[in-house]
Design goal:
By secondary structure, the protein is α+β, with helices and mostly antiparallel strands. It is built from four helices and three strands.
Length: about 90
């Protein structure tokens, strides 16, 4: 399953790169999105993974704004979390 998620993320990254290149040709700027793991988020915000789960459940962290879901895999948007305040 880990290999599947890794491969899926790789394909998504390649597709995003292709889309970004197309927009660049048309002079449309798309901001870079850096996705990080739940462990990294817990370290940055200095909270537990249980707290992150509660915040997702309570819509404090909003899907699409703060994190993305790829099947069972969660990835957080680093820039959104660096500016995050509960």
């Amino acid at each position: 399953m880990e290999d599947y998620n890794t491969e899926l993320l790789k394909e998504i990254k390649e597709e995003l790169t292709s889309i970004r290149n197309e927009f660049t040709k048309q002079r449309i700027v798309i901001p870079e999105i850096q996705l990080i793991s739940e462990t990294e988020v817990a370290e940055i915000l200095k909270v537990s993974k249980v707290t992150l789960n509660k915040w997702r459940r309570d819509n404090i962290l909003i899907e699409g704004k703060h994190y993305m879901r790829f099947g069972k895999c969660l990835r957080y948007k680093k820039n959104a979390l660096l500016n995050f305040s509960k």
